[in-house]
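Supplementary Methods, section 5.1.

A reviewer requested that the exact input to the structure prediction be made available. We therefore reproduce it here, unchanged from the version used in the analyses.
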Amino acid sequence: MKEYKYLEVYETIVDDIEKGYLKYNDKIPSIRKMAKQLDVSKTTVESAYLQLLVEGYVYTKEKVGYFVDVQYNKHAINENLDQINEQFDNHKYRYDFSGRLVDSESFNLDIWKKYIKKALNQSDDLMSYGEPQGELVLKKALQKYSHEYRGVRRPVNNYVVGAGFQILLYYVCSLFERDNIVGIEEGGFKQAEAVFHDCHMQVVKLPVDDKGITIEGLKKANLKLLYLNSSSGGYHGHPIKQQRRLEIIEYAQENDVYIIEDDHNGELKFNTKPIDAMAKLDNDHIIYIGSFSKLLLPSIRISYMALPDQLLSLFKQKSDGYHQTASKLEQLALAMYIEDGQLSRHLRRLRKHYRDKSEHLLKNLQQAFPNYTFDLYETALKITMSVEIDLIDKFIEIAKKHDILVYKNRNNQITLSFSGILDQDIDQATNILKDIWQ
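The structure derived from this sequence is encoded token-by-token as follows.
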């Protein structure tokens, strides 16, 4: 009780200082007076004042008293808070077409919980830090999975696990000198660019055509690294064509360029057979990165990469100073999930799930907006709608007021991702969008 009282006195004074009721050099009540005001003992007040002294909130003048020793610009603090809050939209929309979610029907959480529980029962394994490159049991499972579904052929030791693809990009950048030039398609990808800039790389935007990044653009750039998404890196986000893949790889081989292949959602193509990763075609110049953010859950922060042999020894030298960033518990659970065939079964279900939802949404949009054109992007799990540019911002604003979240892309098209909306909500959502447009 005594401890609680002393903290209560302490917090009362700190709150008055932070809110500006007590200002710099203001005298605070004496110990005797404060004890009387708050109906507590002098010992309690003395303990609180001592804590304030230790933390630098107050200073003391002998035989005079205690004075405030910190100055807050309250107005500036509030302004900053308001500014930060305006940058984030934390509202949970009834109909979310943003692509930042997956719907509750896309993943069987109960099955995942069973594997988490199994991993928890491996108590001996959980009593230590994770391996810097990832748990061996998971790397073995990932090697088998990426070979079967993405065509990647790399030794187990070449695999590295991390908490999201950005962490893996930081690892990659650490293997190269600063100021190296990184090529990325002209539309850009801000999450990747942020990492490159943090690592003091020079980012160059490369032209694309209907087959992917152009060879002419590559030749002009003098690159050391090329970042691309082979599954949605062609013109307007479609897969890079096979002939262009071969040309890009040939250029990389002849010019000692490393390709960072971000194979985001590559295995989720559902209307036709998924195209194998580019890493299948070259083991020496392609750094392959895969992830599970849409295949499983965005909150399961596990990504992996397969390094070429010539970069592996350099990475191992650096990894001695790294801690593993991905949860060891989730790594062990995912390894068992893959080994038991759950991921393969889930992938088959998920392809059907997204195929059905995409067909449903596309049909509704075509009926609601018969005068406009639509494009489906399978691996990106989205549909774009080309409309009058001057109406898009107003349309998006009004949609938000009706609890619908849609975006526009760099080509000034309305973008509707079907990853996060329930199939049963598509009819209602498209009817509201139709009413807004009219």
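The radius of gyration is 28 Å. These observations are discussed further in the main text.
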